[in-house]
Design brief:
By secondary structure, this protein is α/β, with parallel strands linked by helices. Helix content is 36%, strand content 19%. The protein has a single domain, classed as Vaccinia Virus protein VP39 (Rossmann fold), CATH 3.40.50.150. The termini are far apart.
Length: 344
């Protein structure tokens, strides 16, 4: 049975043919409730695997809930299983001690600052608004990685939060505070921050409610959340279907669209005040990763094959992908969606 023949099949149906003993992936979806509304009769859209890092040969389903249209990954995974699908260096680039050394590293750093301009512009509007009003208390970047965004933004005080010890070290080497751990058990006081940013974090957690509850607690009275996720309603996904890199199985647990992200934020005590699909960092690279996943720099680094030739080939593909990515973004169908939201 192919992914195409599975699309639209009610996951409660029993497959008539089995290759191995035990439940098929489609059958195992039947016991999985939608992380958004709790409904249990989702419909499997695609059969997907780990094309970027090849950490596993297992196959997973992208399932859509008929009740709320939220898409999510099935079957469910334990925390230990999920952790095993993150290769070394996934959360962070080269060690910060090497970030300024060597031509390739310097070029990579310059490239990161360039493509982060949409993120910086969007968040800087929040920072400057609150600084002008005299309500600025600082920023928390959740899933901060190596701290490239904090460095490009340049706002103080700012704190990075990440599970990766290497990421925490890299952020501290850039001159920012950083804490290792999860959002739901941070050491910060209630109302400690004027802004919380979550770039490509929320799709990694399921359900979203505990994380968003934690953000509401950490935000000050006039605080703002800025969240960005892959947009499953983009043109890339419509064209490439199961090969769209934004699914990133098995690491992405929920696949948001612009509508379902807005609904998720509203259902968890936020009001959305701004939306953009502009992302020079994410939109062209998502298309490039869909077309040639083996060229993705972190994947090449994990294989020990990082170098100038692969980087130039990848850069060429990203540049070729940019016009299409810009057009879909301008039409509100970009491969990533970013929102500013305030607690209600």
């Amino acid at each position: 049975m192919t992914a195409e023949t599975r699309g639209g099949v009610n996951v409660k149906m029993i497959a008539t043919a089995r290759v191995n003993a035990g439940p098929s992936p489609i059958e195992s979806c039947a016991a999985m409730h939608c992380p958004g509304c709790g409904q249990a009769d989702g419909r499997a859209l695609w059969d997907v695997g780990d094309r970027l890092f090849a950490t596993t040969d297992r196959r997973f389903q992208v399932v859509r809930c008929p009740g709320c249209d939220l898409e999510f990954q099935a079957p469910p995974l334990s925390r230990e299983e999920i952790a095993s699908f993150y290769p070394p260096g996934y959360w962070v680039g080269p060690p910060e001690s090497d970030a300024r050394a060597g031509g390739l590293s310097r070029a990579t750093e310059a490239y990161r600052r360039l493509v982060l301009r949409d993120h910086v512009r969007f968040v800087r509007a929040v920072v400057e608004r609150q600084q002008t009003a005299g309500t600025w208390r600082g920023l928390l970047d959740v899933g901060c990685g190596d701290g490239s965004f904090l460095d490009a933004l340049g706002a103080h005080p700012a704190v990075g939060l990440d599970w990766s010890l290497d990421a925490v070290r890299a952020v501290r080497a850039r001159g920012f505070a950083a804490v290792r751990g999860g959002l739901e058990a941070t050491p910060f006081a209630a109302g400690a921050f004027s802004a919380v940013t979550m770039f490509h974090y929320l799709e990694h957690v399921s359900p979203a409610q505990p994380s968003l509850d934690a953000v509401r607690r950490l935000l000050s009275k006039d605080g703002r959340l800025v969240v960005q996720v892959p947009n499953a309603d983009c043109w890339q996904r419509a064209l490439l279907r199961s090969r769209w890199a934004g699914y990133d199985p098995p690491r992405h647990l929920i696949h948001y669209t612009t509508d379902t992200l807005r609904r998720t934020l509203e259902q968890n005590g936020f009001a959305v005040v701004r939306v953009t699909h502009a992302s020079l960092r994410d939109n062209p690279t998502t298309l490039a990763n869909s077309l040639a996943p083996t060229l993705y720099p972190p994947a090449r680094a994990a294989r020990g094959s990082d170098g100038w030739l692969g980087s130039l080939a990848y850069l060429g593909l990203v540049l070729a992908s940019t016009p299409f990515a810009w057009l879909e973004s301008a039409c509100g169908r970009g491969a990533a969606v970013m929102m500013e939201a305030k607690p209600r």
